[in-house]
Design brief:
Layout: H1 22-39, H2 43-56
Length: about 60
Amino acid sequence: MPAAQFDQFENLDRPVMPADGMENAQQVWEALSDEREQYLESVRADLIRAAILQKAAP
């Protein structure tokens, strides 16, 4: 039976991020979220345009 090569409980007594890191993490999250939202801005229009062109094609 294979044995784990690491201790999965190592560092569980330490915080994931510093206590003052929450504000920075929130700013990064919002920036990434805004960037991802832009990916979808024109999708609806593109899909509708494609459907119209497909119907118009002989």
